[in-house]
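Archive entry. Fields below.
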Amino acid sequence: MRVDELGERALVKQLARIGYPPNATLPPGDDAGAVPWGGGHLLLKTDGFAYRQVALQGMSPEAVGWRAVTAVASDLVAKLARPLGFTLALAAPGEARVETLVGLTRGAARAAAAYGAALLGGDTNAGGELAIYASGVGVARAVLPRAAEPGDGVYLLGDRWGLSGAAIHAHYHGIPLDAYPAIRRAGHWPKARLEVLALGAVRDALSGSADSSDGLAETLWQLAEALGVGIHLEALPVFPEVRAYATEAGVDAHELVLYGGEEYEVVLVVKPGGEAAVERALRAAGVPHHCVGRVVREMGVWYRGEVLARRGYAHFQD
Amino acid sequence: MRVDELGERALVKQLARIGYPPNATLPPGDDAGAVPWGGGHLLLKTDGFAYRQVALQGMSPEAVGWRAVTAVASDLVAKLARPLGFTLALAAPGEARVETLVGLTRGAARAAAAYGAALLGGDTNAGGELAIYASGVGVARAVLPRAAEPGDGVYLLGDRWGLSGAAIHAHYHGIPLDAYPAIRRAGHWPKARLEVLALGAVRDALSGSADSSDGLAETLWQLAEALGVGIHLEALPVFPEVRAYATEAGVDAHELVLYGGEEYEVVLVVKPGGEAAVERALRAAGVPHHCVGRVVREMGVWYRGEVLARRGYAHFQD
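PREDICTED_STRUCTURE:
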């Protein structure tokens, strides 16, 4: 079978299980891989993409390099692991500009430093198009898997919900972002939220977490499907700039929140009764948070009572 | 400037320094990156390649996946780090076969297990051609950098010298390997030598090490140039099967040893006076070893008194 017949979602599910170790401390297909190490956990993650896939209008090579490391850092942080080091592997055609590769590497190094970690070299290869593979290693005392139980509360952490979606929408529709600095910042320079690591102190109040980079709706559907549970969404954060952009662009602001993608924010699943302690920890750490719904027994994802359409990004099929 | 004008060697040298942390415990451009961690060192490495670059005649996707993890494992082991986990990221065109990707992942998982480590998932992306990026993390009590001082002895560890070169030569010249099982094994299923980790016990007798995957001559030139020293090669191991193949193929057996590539073996640099202890440790660990020369003050590489030509493999320029 061809990979474009199978589709990315089914392919990833199949590959993620191959040889995945029985002593792993995160399930296969989670945001990162983890093995026990020194009384805690060692996490490893690789994320690759084509330059043209992610370079939004006006985005510099530095910003793309920053984003590559940020995507990996966000996965590690969502699992409560502190990033220690990153590598950056580049594939480039012979006619690529050295300045572009230097810019990518500089951006990756800046991001690594911003996360208190090191850029530990990388690799370059000839390739048909410019592609970037970032890898990162982190350590955690206790990890947070993709897990949820009926009755749990669902929270969105951070403040990029809808903003990254608006930045991507603006890119594809040629809409200038001069009047929307927060949208531009979320799209060009998203920052992984190291402050989320403070949740380690309230680990017992948590069921699980997921990094959202495929879009909120897709992330929730992945959780629901993998865990055999349902998620009822009741409220969504719609920030003023997202509302203003949506009005100008003639789109539904909720669509930007649900189908944006590349948020690099955390979806947090909190045990019943744990809400107060978790909210206190998030406030103390300065992490914006929004209680958006609840986990139910029946498999599916609903938004205000209606089944939420699944239209996430999938490679091989667009 | 275009990357094919600058060339891979100069590009890698430029990129390797960007943001490389001052507290790193291996120098930029070494076989892996390393930071201090928990009284020891945490090492991270990524290695990428195009499938068609490395799949020799008759090599299965499993063998290519095995090789991807082996290349990374060999770099970690050469620095005296024990591998703990690997990831595998794949880029594939839509028409690629699912079976190929499954095979690559199975091979990678087998290799990880063979090295006592875990395959911790990965990533898939659409790409113009099939490409593989393996990353690995390892830990070491004491690391061994690319270092050498005049007076040091130079050793080749392992038994694939010339054999991997013969396998690559056979591939490009359409020569069947049925009569050469050791050459085929070295080319298709090279195994990183975990036994080399036994050298941790004689770390004080060692100056440095380098993984050889660009070919012996290129590896020695890299060492000489980076360290400002010279290397006098006096003897080279030429194994019977390499000699037989060279005779049949009408090539110089020494050329196969010097310019082979993809050995995934270690070049070891031993302090003067340390030879006996190191040889004892290698014998006890069952690591084949060959004393091949000595480090000198004058920069360069010589083989039996003649300057050794530098003809390593470089991306972007072939």
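CURATOR_NOTE: DSSP finds eleven helices and twelve strands in chain A.
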